[in-house]
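hey
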């Protein structure tokens, strides 16, 4: 796989500083039962990196000490970490909101037969990957049979109250090197297609841009489309989106307890640095405050500010629709 960091320029993206911490996003490991084309983590069934209990306990200590009210669990498939349920139960007992970034097919894995019921019992907010409402597109991006398995997972979650009294968000990623369409319009299409065809209910749709890093970035380099995609992102940049980017009030923690401004920086190895320019871990931040710390930026950050903007919470604001797509280099 190509190294994308060497293709990302420094100094072109506006400088940013952190606000108060609201959300702790924790990557529990890169093990996953799927290997998706757009995955910025390059997760898959053969990855072995997994957060251990001691590190998970440090995460809980930071969550409560910092005053952050949301624990956002991701991976890989975060549910495949043996400490996932313990971490969820502890965070909920402490009064924190918990988000599970679920690929839906994990609900059918051996040993996860009661996972959906566990999530519902703890009122975990589910953010579920479903990059299209068409079977062909989903299976092309995520593997054969994934769409049907995802529908089974969604029906099971609906039966437990998700999409009604419990929060169920769906996540859209473009199929290739283009910006997501306007989130509100696409959400209406999702509701119509999934509701009429399959009886699926959900709370909201989140549109995310594909980041030019890891597996997706490497694919662009192989196709000769990396620079044209970066041009697309730079030219679609909007300064007003800088207020809403997630790195302003999120922290990202990797499976070893190292801390980053965001999940994308984690994958590029760009750590959060203290004002003394030292990389930090979860333990280093206990009792501290990251407000006004500088944010590590590079050109991949344009993926969060292009067009309507993009973050783990979906679009940042309304923007004119763009149909531009990065083309292959001549």
């Amino acid at each position: 796989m190509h190294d994308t960091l060497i293709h990302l320029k420094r100094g072109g993206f506006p400088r940013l500083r952190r606000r108060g911490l609201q959300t702790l996003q924790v990557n529990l490991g890169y093990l996953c039962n799927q290997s998706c084309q757009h995955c910025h983590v390059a997760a898959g069934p053969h990855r072995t990196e997994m957060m251990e209990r001691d590190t998970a306990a440090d995460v809980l200590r930071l969550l409560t000490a910092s005053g952050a009210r949301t624990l956002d669990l991701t991976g890989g498939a975060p549910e495949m970490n043996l400490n996932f349920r313990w971490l969820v139960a502890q965070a909920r007992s402490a009064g924190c909101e918990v988000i599970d970034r679920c690929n839906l097919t994990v609900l059918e894995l051996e040993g996860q037969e009661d996972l959906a019921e566990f999530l519902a019992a703890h009122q975990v907010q589910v953010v579920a990957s479903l990059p299209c409402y068409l079977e062909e597109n989903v299976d092309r991006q995520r593997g054969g049979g994934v769409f049907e398995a995802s529908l089974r997972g969604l029906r099971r979650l609906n039966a437990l109250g998700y999409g009604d009294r419990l929060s169920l968000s769906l996540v859209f990623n473009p199929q290739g090197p283009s910006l997501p369409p306007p989130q509100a319009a696409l959400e209406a299409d999702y509701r119509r297609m999934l509701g009429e065809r399959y009886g699926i209910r959900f709370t909201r749709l989140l549109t995310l841009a594909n980041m030019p890093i890891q597996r997706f970035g490497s694919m662009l380099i192989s196709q000769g489309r990396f620079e044209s995609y970066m041009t697309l992102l730079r030219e679609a940049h909007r300064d007003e989106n800088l207020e809403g980017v997630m790195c302003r009030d999120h922290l990202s923690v990797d499976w070893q307890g190292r801390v980053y401004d965001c999940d994308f920086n984690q994958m590029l190895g760009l750590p959060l640095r203290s004002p003394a320019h030292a990389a930090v871990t979860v333990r280093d931040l206990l009792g501290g405050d990251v407000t006004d710390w500088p944010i590590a930026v590079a050109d991949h950050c344009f993926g969060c500010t292009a067009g309507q903007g993009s973050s783990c919470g979906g679009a940042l604001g309304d923007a004119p629709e763009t149909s531009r797509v990065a083309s292959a280099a001549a």
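The radius of gyration is 19 Å. Residues 5-305 form a domain with the TIM Barrel fold (CATH 3.20.20).
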